[in-house]
């Protein structure tokens, strides 16, 4: 399909401006890899596997490493380490995947995660684009609100997930009235 524009026609000029703007946006999207909304909460860039061609898999944080760093921070402050719970892991994984699809950090759906967890108290921290599990936890410790969640004395169980740079942590306190869901093998 060919487009014809008449010289001096206002409608044609507006059409050309729209096409130019569209092409400029396409060019920007094609050249700006990793562009995302900066929330100010996560200053460190995400390190991808391609940035470490010689055995860089260790540079990409894992959920296990994230929980180890969380527990290290808690033990250093004379708090009990958290037990990993797979029902909470599933909720955290779903939320990390949701944030990845949306392209930004959020606490959307927290009330639903709280209901599904059956916890008496549930806390949540999210992060994006930290290069290591230690950096994620340090970022949370540097933020008063996130530190309060991470170091809450009543939480005993955790669910953690990392999905292409998006991290989700759920900490839960279970009681006899709100028992932990059964662990699945």
What does this structure look like?
By secondary structure, the protein is an alpha+beta fold. The chain contains 6 helices and 4 strands, in the order ααβααβααββ. Strands 1-3-4-2 form a 4-stranded mixed beta sheet, sandwiched between helices. Helix 2 packs across helix 5 (133-141). The radius of gyration is 22 Å and the shape is globular. Residues 1-5, 10-14 and 22-58 have low confidence and may be disordered.
Helix content: 40-55%
CATH topology of the domain at 63-173: Pathogenesis-related Protein p14a
State the low-pLDDT regions, or none.
1-5, 10-14, 22-58
Number of strand segments: 4
Order of helices and strands: HHEHHEHHEE
Largest sheet: 4 strands, mixed
CATH level 1 name of the domain at 63-173: Alpha Beta
CATH superfamily of the domain at 63-173: CAP
The CATH level-2 architecture of the domain at 63-173 is identified as 3-Layer(aba) Sandwich
pLDDT averaged residue by residue: 78
Broad structural category: alpha+beta
Overall form: globular
With strands numbered from the N-terminus, the spatial order across the biggest sheet is 1-3-4-2
| Cα gyration radius (Å) | 22 Å
- Percentage of β-strand residues: 5-15%
Span of the ends, CA to CA? 58 Å
Number of helices: 6
Protein name: Cysteine-rich secretory protein family protein
Pfam families: CAP (PF00188)
Domain SCP: 67-165
Organism: Paucidesulfovibrio gracilis DSM 16080
């Amino acid at each position: 399909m060919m487009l014809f524009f008449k010289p001096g026609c206002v409608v044609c000029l507006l059409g050309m401006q729209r096409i130019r703007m569209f092409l400029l946006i396409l060019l920007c999207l094609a050249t700006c890899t990793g562009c995302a909304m900066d929330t100010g909460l996560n200053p460190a860039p995400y390190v991808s596997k391609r940035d470490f061609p010689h055995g860089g898999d260790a540079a990409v944080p894992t959920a296990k490493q994230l929980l180890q760093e969380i527990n290290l921070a808690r033990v250093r402050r004379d708090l009990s380490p958290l037990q990993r719970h797979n029902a909470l892991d599933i909720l955290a994984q779903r939320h990390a995947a949701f944030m990845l699809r949306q392209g930004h950090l959020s606490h959307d759906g927290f009330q639903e995660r709280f209901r599904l967890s059956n916890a008496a108290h549930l806390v949540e921290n999210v992060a994006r684009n930290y290069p290591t599990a230690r950096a994620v936890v340090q970022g949370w410790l540097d933020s008063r609100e996130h530190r309060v969640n991470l170091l809450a004395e009543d939480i005993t169980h955790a669910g953690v997930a990392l999905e292409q740079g998006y991290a989700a942590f759920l900490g839960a306190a279970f009681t006899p009235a709100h028992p932990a869901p059964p662990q699945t093998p």
